[in-house]
Amino acid sequence: MTDAPIDPSRAPVLTIDGPSGSGKGTISRHVARALGWHYLDSGALYRAVGIAASWADIDLSDASALVRCTFDTEIEFGDEVGDEPRVIVNGLDATDELRTETAGAAASAIAAIPEVRAALKDRQRAFRRAPGLVADGRDMGTVIFPDAGIKVFLTASADERAERRYKQLKEKGVSVTLPGLLREILARDARDANRAVAPLRPADDAVRIDTTGLSIDAVVERVLALLPAR
Ligand SMILES: Nc1ncnc2c1ncn2[C@@H]1O[C@H](COP(=O)(O)OP(=O)(O)O)[C@@H](O)[C@H]1O
Ligand SMILES: Nc1ccn([C@H]2C[C@H](O)[C@@H](COP(=O)(O)OP(=O)(O)O)O2)c(=O)n1
């Protein structure tokens, strides 16, 4: 399959890629709100397919069933709960299930299947609309929006990312342990970075920001400072 050429005059895109817990979602939502731009949480699409597959009892090793499931799964973003939109999968509210580490691990596993990635490409590009789009994920700057005007790659130490996730899940009442989360984060990092297709890596033209020890506001400020003066 060849990709359709991307018209560079279309709505501007700011991509924010990085590993789990680097703050992509939080920073992207703040930046999108500040700019009045649309927001794409590409990880939610992979998580939604993983959840639809588990609801349909599809084994994570059954690549052809997973590809069919990707085409068949309806995913909608609804009203915001807290500062995150509800995610409706095949008509059912999957918001809470989506954020679990089990859903993250399933998403990471199916995301290594090239046909699943190809099946989600157009759905992700359809989020590009005026006045602009902030897109977060693993391959936003490298594969999905290679012509994005601004590309950011967020990192943070694995210990800090595990601690952030620990606090986040505890606040949601999910029972987790810090060593368990650190192990899961390191396993996901390795799988996402070492897969053959669209591995997690900074685009050559991405600005890297190490968020270890930085506040959310400080990171938002650094990202907004990359945009031309408004
Ligand atoms: N710079 C930061 N400093 C401290 N906590 C942060 C920072 N960025 C994000 N967080 C917190 O870390 C948690 C994980 O962030 P999230 O945006 O979900 O990361 P990602 O989308 O990269 O997995 C959230 O609870 C968020 O509030
Ligand atoms: N653009 C993307 C987004 C997510 N994925 C895969 C790989 C990730 O481990 C899972 C879950 O991604 P998500 O961004 O929701 O996870 P984190 O919030 O970073 O923990 O999906 C991907 O391969 N490509």
TrEMBL record:
Looking at the keywords, is Nucleotide-binding present? yes
Coiled-coil positions: none
Q: Which Gene3D superfamilies match?
A: P-loop containing nucleotide triphosphate hydrolases
Q: Which of UniProt's keywords are assigned here?
A: ATP-binding, Cytoplasm, Kinase, Nucleotide-binding, Transferase
Q: Quote the EC number.
A: 2.7.4.25
GO terms (molecular function) for this protein are:
kinase activity
Signal peptide start and end residues:
none
Name used for this protein in its record? Cytidylate kinase
Q: Which organism is it from?
A: Noviluteimonas caseinilytica
Q: What is the name of the gene encoding this protein? A: cmk
